[in-house]
Amino acid sequence: xxxxxxxxxxxxxxxxxxxxxxxxxxxxxxxxxxxxxxxxxxxxxxxxxxxxxxxxxxxxxxxxxxxxxxxxxxxxxxxxxxxxxxxxxxxxxxxxxxxxxxxxxxxxxxxxxxxxxxxxxxxxxxxxxxxxxxxxxxxxxxxxxxxxxxxxxxxxxxxxxxxxxxxxxxxxxxxxxxxxxxxxxxxxxxxxxxxxxxxxxxxxxxxxxxxxxxxxxxxxxxxxxxxxxxxxxxxxxxxxxxxxxxxxxxxxxxxxxxxxxxxxxxxxxxxxxxxxxxxxxxxxxxxxxxxxxxxxxxxxxxxxx
Length: 305
Hints:
Layout: H1 14-28, H2 53-61, E1 67-77, E2 80-89, E3 97-102, H3 110-125, E4 130-135, H4 139-144, H5 165-177, E5 181-188, E6 194-197, H6 203-215, E7 235-237, H7 240-253, H8 258-264, E8 268-275, H9 280-299
Parallel strand pairs: 3-4, 3-5, 5-8, 6-7
Antiparallel strand pairs: 1-2, 2-4, 6-8
Helix pairs in contact: 3-9, 6-9
């Protein structure tokens, strides 16, 4: 099993503690820290892979023989319109449904670039699973290399108040598509990949998905992006404490991410966090293999286990 070596969090000085608290507040306590798509701090180590909206749309349209591709909505920044695409395969009407959210944070490029490769794999296997993909949820941020949207909102903090166009579009897709399972593709500062699983994700499904990632060469993290050791490589199930803190976060600050929103709807969500550093192929691999592993499980009837 390829597992990244556990590295305890570095010792903090008073200066580093102040910086860490400031960054934590910006990323976890404020829904709109800017009024424009600001880049990440230099010392966050985000390595952009490059994204062009028109190129991405063309890469999706190359798969039109096997998928229905539409513009879910558009957002405007600096007098330019950016499409948010909706891609769906042609599965039987009674097939289990998997919703994939790609590029909620625009500077996490691997999950966006993975989508055409996911389509190639699905076209080759033609699974009896209905797969719907929103890509990218945050096209302005993806173009500008920013976590935030064109108005400076963190979209993944807006699933309580729904002030952003992007969050409202995802909310409407969930209502219309009615998925059995959601997977949200993210990246983070840790050295390898791990998966958050909300309370409605069957533990067996998440564990089998991680086993598949391991078997297909994905490097698994031993700790999350806060430096906390994971209970098993690559696996971060939501604890009762974390669940209650997230509910408090929503009630007091009006902030909610997609995992908690899915939880309130009674839906399982897996959130993949690959490393936002390293070779493109290695980063994209985790996203492709997780989606394909979940499709395989749903096709085999594994969503309820």
